[in-house]
Amino acid sequence: MTRLVEITVPDEVRRRACAGEEGARQLIYAAVAPATFALIRRLVGNRSASEDVFQDTMMILFERLTEFRQEAPLGAWLRQIAISRCLMHLRSPWRRVRQCLEGVLEGEAGGAVRPATNPPPPETIDIERALATLAPTARAVIWMYEVEGYSHAEIAAAFGRSVSFSKSQLARAHLKLRAWFEPQGSRPTCTLS
Amino acid sequence: MHTELEQESLARLLREIPDAGAGPYDWREFRRRAQAAPAAAARVARLRALAAAIVVALAILALAIRMGGGPRPPHPAATPVTASNAAPAAITEAAPPESDEAAAQYWLDRLPREPAVVHVGTRAAVETLEDHIAQVDDLLSAERAGSAPAARVRALRQERAQLVHSLVQVRYAETLADASR
Q1: Who among B17, B23, B33 is closest to A127 (CB)?
Q2: Is B37's CB within 8 Å of A55's CB?
Q3: Closest chain B C-alpha to A64 CA, distance in angstroms
Q4: What gap in Å lies between CA B104 and CA B173, rounded to an integer?
Q5: Buried-exposed string A63-93: b where 16+ CB fall within 10 A, e elsewhere
Q6: Closest Cα of chain A to B173: distance in Å?
């Protein structure tokens, strides 16, 4: 799949979409939706929450399409919107409450998987599962830095925090992910939250 | 160096992760959700307004109760302010002095030294007692100005001393309750 930041849309299609033409909007949707949803899914995690954020993002895209100045590919502009919506979702107090409740329910059911207590065997190490164990903020930071190519300064600006916040989150995420690659016998106890 | 290599391989692994699960819904579904969004947003806004109104109403009610606007307690004589070691009858053992200050001191000296723990419903009891003391003070002033019988003045002083005693006990109970929180 093409990375979102590299996706461009012909100018003619964009102009028709700005004029409200349904077919042109459908073309743009088909071009950007898969990569946008994939990015949102990585940052948000939960499928239903990802769909909500994705819907918001795409609605904002079409509402503000006339404001697009073509200084960068449309995908790069859309990526900014998507990441901004994801971070808003992650900061939402409603999401935190829901996460707490889900954590309690998982705890009651005994279904929570923690790397320090229940690590997968080395032969089935799965980076996706490792990624899923990270805290949402740490997951967003490592994804933005390593995959999307954001700098620490850009991540800090996106989160409204300091550069050292970005660096420390990234270092913690690396530490925790590396723990999954340690041989099981020598795997240290992970104390990260 | 080792860490840098590990970091590089981690970054590479992250970039090579295949897309998670199924893709997004199609254009038709997007349009359907977009059309439903205003109604859903209005519904959420209504629910939030209702929740805010309930919170404000509860806050006002709590404030009203706290400030004594709630149910008024019965007359101090009937309030559940009960001093286990208070013996009102004992106050009338001997004749009090004639001067006001000495009489007040006399009645206060006759009250038990140690405050007793009392049961108080609300803070309104304090206000009621204070109001009642103020009324007795007014009556005392009026009776003195009208050269009332000494027995009447004495009875009022005695009632005042008892009210002050009750007030001290209520305050003490409040202090205990605050300290135990």
Answers
A1: B17
A2: yes
A3: 15
A4: 24
A5: eebeebeeeeebbebbbebbbebbbebbeee
A6: 39
In this complex, the residue of B6, B23, B34 whose CB is nearest that of residue A34 is B23
Q: Please report, for residues A58, B39, B105, the alpha-carbon distance to residue A51 in angstroms, rounded to integers and kept in the order given.
A: 10, 18, 79
Structure tokens, A145: 């830095």
Type of residue at A136? P
ipTM of predicted complex: 0.73
| Residues in contact with A174: Cβ distance below 8 Å, sequence separation at least 6, in sequence order | A142, B6, B7, B10
Inter-chain touch B27–A127, beta carbons under 8 Å: no
Scan for tokens 């490792």, then name that residue: A130
Q: Print pLDDT tens along chain A (193 aa).
A: 678 888 888 999 999 999 999 999 999 999 999 999 999 998 988 888 999 999 999 999 999 999 998 888 999 999 999 999 999 998 887 777 776 666 655 544 444 344 444 554 443 457 778 888 888 899 999 999 998 899 999 999 999 999 999 999 999 999 888 887 776 555 444 444 4
Min Cα–Cα distance to chain A from B15, Å: 5
Q: Which burial class, exposed, middle or buried, applies to B96 when counting CB atoms under 10 A from its CB (0-12, 13-18, 19+)?
A: buried
